[in-house]
Write a structure and sequence with these properties.
By secondary structure, the chain is α+β, with helices and mostly antiparallel strands. The chain is built from four helices and six strands, in the order ααβααβββββ.
Length: 136
């Protein structure tokens, strides 16, 4: 069973066949699919699944904190099942491929006190951009 499915079962989330197939599609490392990509892959496994069900399920997973929405450069939102493990993203500026990265250091510590403007900073989202090997 995938890590996401295990977490959802542990929460007592009602596991319908539609919810299960969406969770299965999201399983794996460096998964950052759009809702439409999730729907296409889910429909390969469960042809009767509707786009609305996929969107609703993704919304529930985001609300539960089990999946994160990732937005980069005005592209379609992508869904990251690695929401429980702190990480940043590396994005190809040509094709939009996204990889999870785990840089050393604390991005909050890198923001000088004078640049915080009195904010009580609680989190930082860093996105690294470049060109992937396929596009280079």
């Amino acid at each position: 069973m995938s890590d996401l499915l295990e977490r959802l079962r542990g929460r007592g989330w009602r596991m319908t066949s539609q919810r299960r197939v969406v969770a299965e599609v999201l399983d794996g490392d460096h998964v950052h699919l759009t809702a439409d990509e999730v729907h296409v892959r889910a429909a390969e496994r469960l042809p009767e699944i509707s786009r609305a069900t996929v969107y609703n399920t993704l919304g529930e997973l985001v609300s539960l904190g089990e999946v994160a929405e990732v937005s980069t450069d005005g592209r379609a939102k992508r869904y990251d099942p690695n929401a429980r493990h702190p990480h940043q993203h590396l994005v190809c500026s040509r094709c939009g491929t996204i990889r999870d990265v785990h840089p050393t250091g604390d991005p909050l510590a890198d923001l000088p006190v004078g640049e915080r403007f009195g904010f009580a900073v609680a989190a930082a989202d860093v996105t690294y951009r470049g060109v992937c090997p396929s596009c280079a």
